[in-house]
Amino acid sequence: MLEAGSLGAVSDALKFVLLLKLLLATLLGGAIGFEREIAGKPAGLRTNILICVGAALFTHLSINIAQIGFTPDGRPYGDTTRIAAQIVSGIGFLGAGAILHAHGAVVGLTTAATIWVVAAVGAAIGAGAYVEGVGTSVLIILVLVGLRPVERNLLNRRRKVNATIRVQREVRFDVIEDIVRACGLHIFSRRTFEHESDRAFELELIGTSKQIDLAIDDMRRRQDVVSVSVE
Questions:
Q1: Which residue of 69, 163, 164, 204 has the lowest C-beta tally within 10 Å?
Q2: Which residues, listed in sequence order, are joined to residue 106 by a DSSP beta bridge?
Q3: For position 101, what pLDDT does the model report?
Q4: Confidence band (pLDDT; 50, 70, 90) for 46?
Q5: Which of 107, 90, 79, 94 lies closest to 48, judged by CA?
């Protein structure tokens, strides 16, 4: 049986290990959060640090609390994954908050995905998987920073999309055409459908993703535009 002094030494050692885990989680979460802060995203430095540290602490507690007592055959009474498993579902609430829905547009998916994977890094550190946690953090930063020019290049390529613009009945096509052409888009074809309460223009547009997004935003800001959908 361990003496009181030995128990105290073990307790201090465990606290020291936990402190190192939390410090490492702070560094890794901060590295990812720093990139998000520079990019001007809503989930920046402090948010990512807190997520990573919280996930690490929950995972550490989940493992240690479950091992307080053991059965005669050496198995822990508790489930070592019980608390840690809630990180996966709980972090979904933060991710959902980072995704903004505005007039059919969806933004913030990368931020939500970053929050999700930062929690995974924290869980890895809390479980003592240091190599996996550090390696994943490096990979995340490479993806966020290294693939940004590639993504920008892809967005600048011209493509054809089908757009359906529903407007109030008194709105003429000239109004929509002016917006589309002002954004540098080419109208490949168009069809007009009259409805009881509004009219719809189905257009085939050719241009870059940036030009298409700009035209859609301009149309959605108009009070006489009912909806805009793009395929």
A1: 69
A2: 101
A3: 52
A4: very high
A5: 94
